[in-house]
Amino acid sequence: MAADLSVQFTGLTFENPFLLSSAPPTASESNILRAFESGWGGVVTKTIGLHPVVNVAGPKTKFLRASAESNEISMRKLPNAALHSSWNWELISTKPLEWWVPRIERIKAAHPTKMLIASIMAGSGSDKELAHWQELAVACQEAGADGLELNLSCPHMDRADMGSNIGKDAGLCSIVTQVVKEVATIPVWSKLTPATGDIVVEAAAVFRGGADAVVSSNTFPSLPLIDPETLEFEVNVEGLVSSGGLGGPAIMPLSLAKMAQMTNAFPDKSFSGIGGVSEFAHALNYLLLGCGTVQVCTSAMLDRAVGPNVIRRLNDGLAEFLDRHAEQGWTSVEDFRGIRRERVVANSQIQRPDESEYFGGHDDAEGYAPASAA
Ligand SMILES: Cc1cc2nc3c(=O)[nH]c(=O)nc-3n(C[C@H](O)[C@H](O)[C@H](O)COP(=O)(O)O)c2cc1C
């Protein structure tokens, strides 16, 4: 019997748990159609806003590679180099809402069983700005989107009331999620920034606002490296650069740490994991920590723009994994989802060679006999 790759996530049925995340692979109708034809279970559209967007002059995304021979990490072409990360300072979709609405309608008409999640973004500094979230949400859901993803996480917005600046403010996280939930009839996912001290605080805030799921990670704030010969940043416009976002293999362990914090704090909530995935073994980490779906950007960008080979490897890998564990009675993702979540514990819970000498970093309590004397 063929393995059942499908998952239920926030009330939606995905034919497999793998989605293209909000980024260039989902920035056009033709890309999204190709993505669905390639086998992705869902896509999250490039983030849609209300205001016109103009990107920087010059490249918006570059890829860093690491050489095993020379220890170099660079955007230059290096011999025998492995992908290290992507770096980007691309803004949200340059296409307005009016452009997206008929396309969402057409894509859903062509692929009614594939899941199309609309990523949206507005400001949060006034009631008018909050109403923009509702306008975007209603337009996308009326066009047929299956769900909404709130971009509370873009790392390179100058405005203090947008993108990751919302994601860094628990109050705004809650309010924005709540205003969208007031008008939404479809599931609402909140995509958080990893650039905070304790992401559990913001996750709690969006769940208080009614979020059906938390999505993480967006890219990590970062700079391109400086070329040691020219002393110029490897990406710059007339010598200048601003902080951008790091994605790809380099962020996977970082993103997993954030995810484990949240899935442990909220074991009954829904999570969609992103960061560095190109193989099933990578996606498996997110599933074992409790995620119900996994999203992909960088590796898909490098594989014919929408990742046809990446999704084939993910689906084949999951099918093979379920086959291999059939004797354990595992027939779907739900049977093994989260089984490594509780293995992530406080450092003090990790065994010591000599427990009697260990007080968790504290002095032995004064006035009491040493634990070993008991
Ligand atoms: C060029 C580029 C553009 C992106 N644009 C968006 C966006 O519009 N909205 C969003 O929520 N995330 C955006 N992202 C973040 C990705 O969706 C994803 O969260 C991040 O790249 C980490 O995944 P990865 O390691 O698979 O690349 C973008 C990423 C890249 C590289």
User: Could you tell me the radius of gyration in angstroms?
Assistant: 22 Å
Inertia-based shape = globular
* Distance between the first and last residues' Cα: 59 Å
Number of helices: 10
Q: What class would the helix/strand composition place it in?
A: alpha/beta
Which ligands does the model contain, each kind named once? flavin mononucleotide
Rounded mean pLDDT is 95
The multimeric state of the shown protein is single chain
Low-confidence stretches: none
Topology, number of strands = 15
Helical content class: 25-40%
Largest sheet: 8 strands, parallel, barrel
Strand content: 15-25%
In what order do the strands lie side by side in the largest sheet? Answer: 3-4-8-9-10-11-14-15
Following the backbone from N to C, one meets helices and strands in this order, namely: EEEHEEEEHEHEHHEHEEEHEHEHH
Task: Describe the structure in your own words.
The structure is a single chain. The chain has 374 residues and is an alpha/beta fold. Helix content is 30%, strand content 18%. β10, α6 (199-208) and β11 form a beta-alpha-beta unit. It is globular and about 75 Å long. The model has no long low-confidence stretch (mean pLDDT 95). It binds flavin mononucleotide. Flavin mononucleotide binds at residues 21-24, 46-47, 61, 86, 88, 90, 92, 119, 151, 153-154, 191, 218-219, 247-248, 251, 274-277, 296-298.
Q: What attributes characterize this protein structure?
A:
374 residues; alpha/beta; five-stranded antiparallel beta sheet; 15 strands; 30% helix; 18% strand
